[in-house]
Fold Acetyl-coenzyme A carboxylase carboxyl transferase subunit beta.
Amino acid sequence: MAIIREMFKKNKKRYMTVPSDASRDVPEGIMTKCPECKKIILTKDLMKSNKVCPHCDHHMKMTAWERVDCLFDEETFKPMDEELKTSNPLNFPSYEEKVKADSEKTGLNEAVLTGIGEIGGRRTAVAIMDAHFRMGSMGSVVGEKITRAVEKATQEGIPFIIFTASGGARMQEGVLSLMQMAKTSVALSRHSEQGLLYISVMTHPTTGGVSASFASVGDINLAEPKALIGFAGRRVIEQTVREKLPEDFQTAEFLLEHGQLDAVVHRSDMKDVLSTLIRLHGKEDR
């Protein structure tokens, strides 16, 4: 017995970490840990709350199709331009392989999903960026899809909404990605000239060339709570201005306080808020 006890002491850590039969029976993905408060949540409960932590109210990243499900009236959304795919214009090493891997992971051909559906019974065009695809970076196809969606909204005389989630311009496409800033902005300007509504909803994160172009020029600019929104990184700015920035710098709440947003909207209220704005600004209601 003494020998057995000694063996247990030496291997206690290994024995203690062996999963029980009960834990083996738990299907993978049934639980989710909140990245903010670190508490464990049943995944099915998290999905019911649109991926908002019930403990700390942290808004977790959503996929493009998850946003469609919680935003549009049931079975009204029709995607656009799903056949458009990124090539490798600069022959950047391993770029095509990485794009293919993200496509298989997300079920999308690019980092944005575009289409038309109904919100509160009113036809609306939308572009929803997905940070799970190349960190939502903006390449030539992302810019093309957004531009086409804006032009379709202009042609049909309906509102346009974009949900941004991006690390900025896609470096693997160089200047071709930067050109999308101008192209999308011109399309939005023409949309505005027709007296049509454009709403920008910034989610975590919205940075770089995306924040410096179409994300910031909405007729109404909204954001989700605590979303990171900015152009350059915090450390770059601190080194440039040579002073310490506030702790809440580049958060949605900071931007709201300084007049760069119209409202910070909780995810549970987003559809009602958008539906109300579309109704108030609809041409047929004037």
